Amino acid sequence: MEASERAVLAPFAEKSGDSRGRQNSEPGHAFRTEFQRDRARIIHSRAFRRMEYKTQVFLNGTGDHLRTRLTHSIEVASISRTIARALRLNEDLAEAIALAHDLGHAPFGHSGEEMLAECMRDHGGFDHNRQSVRVVELLEDPYPNFPGLNLTFEVREGLRKHGAFHEMEDATGPQAPTTLQSYRCPSLEAQVADLADEITYYSHDLDDAVDFEILDAAQLEKNEVWRQSLRTVLARYPDAREPELHKLIIRDIIDTEVRDLVSTSAKSIAGAGVQRADEARQQPAPLIRYSDDLFQANRDLRKFLYRNVYYNPRVSDVNRRACEMLRHVFQAYLADPDELGETAAKRIEPTATRVIAPWSGGIEVNRPYLRCRASVFFPKILNHQPQPFINREFFEDVLTTERVAHKCCSNEIRKQFRVAQIGKIPVYFRGKLPRSIPFEVRIKFQHFRSERFGFH
To answer: pLDDT tens track of the chain, all 456 residues?
Structure first.
């Protein structure tokens, strides 16, 4: 398999057979390359599964189809493979980096990271990129002889992003530290995963914001990236209308971004004349990049998203309240570290904060609050005054009567009921059940009552 890599991949691509190796030596595998083994270890890790409950932008559970860190990472991996294949880079390495890049992210998006950074201000801070490295190097423990997943140097290098590469002194070879000091950029595959991450969240944050009814057509047409794709889509599908229209636009945005990135990066690599993977690392600036026009358009798109989506009160206010819960969790564990459990307690020396931060940052968003542990733990957080931790008004704002009526495809039920929702579970109902509600929805209405979640 390593021989086929050398035959197919470009000279400047990373090859599994040339890997700097793992922190702890292991025998090779008969059927998989080293980077394919890394990908499998990441997918099978607990940290990967926990991303299902971590928020991307919108609070997890506030809609059936909104992205989470897990779905985001899968989309990044898909786009990474496409770009890597087009440039004849190592798809397996790019995919492994993409799948692991958010393993250390806090819940509740970047607001959660800021909250943990504030809690850790006097103890080295909190950064999700460094935390991702810590997860794969220390916190995951599937093997008896060493901590972590024991991933290859190249994957861990890609997770460090802005870190100093010469700090990775575990790389093999007598000249390794000196070589690492000459690196100015990570591998081309790591650069691909980094920009695939940008393309992914630009597109799906727009998609989710439209689905969540935060952005409307008038707002979107103020952004150049959206306008260009809208014109392209309507030229191809002149009869396209919502809700299909914005899905077609999102697809075109991704396609335009990827095509531009591949074309520009191929010219950049050829212009630099690199012939080995390490030569790409020694360049003064990354070779994987957008064209100047698209780079500026993406900067404007990023500002647009911050102004209209991330700072929108329907997003920021909810995340702020959720982050306050996260701070209470951190403080409660700091006051009573025994609640962390035996495994985490073993890492407390010399300070509990570095152990509590990743535990708090790794919690699922819904389950610690809704499962049986909450009945024991949350009275401590709430000063021994048990009370609902999320107000009913929040859910009323999340899913309005009009949106439920639209989802149920019937105008007859608009005035007959109101509903709030956690994920796919409606949690309260008023009035007689209309026959026009689909059978599955009626069963959920009848089974899940408000008292199940502490509402009155």
So the answer is: 778 888 999 999 999 999 999 999 999 898 999 999 999 999 999 999 999 888 777 776 666 778 889 999 999 999 999 999 999 999 999 999 999 999 998 888 778 888 888 888 888 888 888 889 999 999 898 999 999 999 999 999 999 864 545 455 554 455 555 666 778 899 999 999 999 999 999 999 999 999 888 999 999 999 999 999 999 999 999 999 988 999 999 999 999 999 999 999 999 999 999 999 999 999 999 999 999 999 999 999 999 999 999 888 888 887 788 788 888 878 877 877 777 777 776 666 555 555 555 545 554 444 433 333 444 444 444 444 433 333 444 444 444 444 544 544 443 333 333 333 333 334 333 444 444 444 444 444 444 333 333 333
State the DSSP H helix or E strand holding residue 422, giving kind and residue range, or none if neither: strand 420-422
**433/455 Cα distance (integer angstroms):** 20
Where is 420: in which H helix or E strand?
strand 420-422
- 356 is written with which tokens? 């509590």
213: left (phi over 0), alpha (psi -120 to 50) or beta: left
CA gap 173, 162 in Å, rounded: 24
What backbone torsions phi and psi does residue 22 show, to the nearest 5 degrees? Answer: -110, 160
What is the dihedral sign for C-alpha 40, 41, 42, 48? positive
DSSP 3-state assignment of 427?
strand
What's the burial of 202, exposed, middle or buried (CB within 10 Å: 0-12/13-18/19+)? buried
Residue 298: strand pairing partners: none
Give the residue extent of every domain in the chain.
Answer: 2-310, 323-381, 392-453
* Percentages (nearest 5) of helix, strand, coil residues in the chain: 60, 0, 35
pTM metric for this prediction:
0.77
Left if phi > 0, otherwise alpha if psi is -120 to 50, otherwise beta: which for 152?
Answer: beta
Decide if 442 contacts 429 (C-beta within 8 A): no
Tokens representing 123 are 């103890």
DSSP 284-298: SS-S----HHHHHHH
**Tokens representing 179?**
């070589």
Count Cβ neighbours within 10 Å for each residue of 297-331 and write b for 16 or more, e otherwise: bbeebeebbeebbbebebbeebbeebbebbbbbbe
Rounded Cα–Cα distance for residues 101 and 190 (Å) = 10
Class of domain 2-310: mainly alpha
Q: Are 152 and 22 in contact (CB under 8 A)?
A: yes
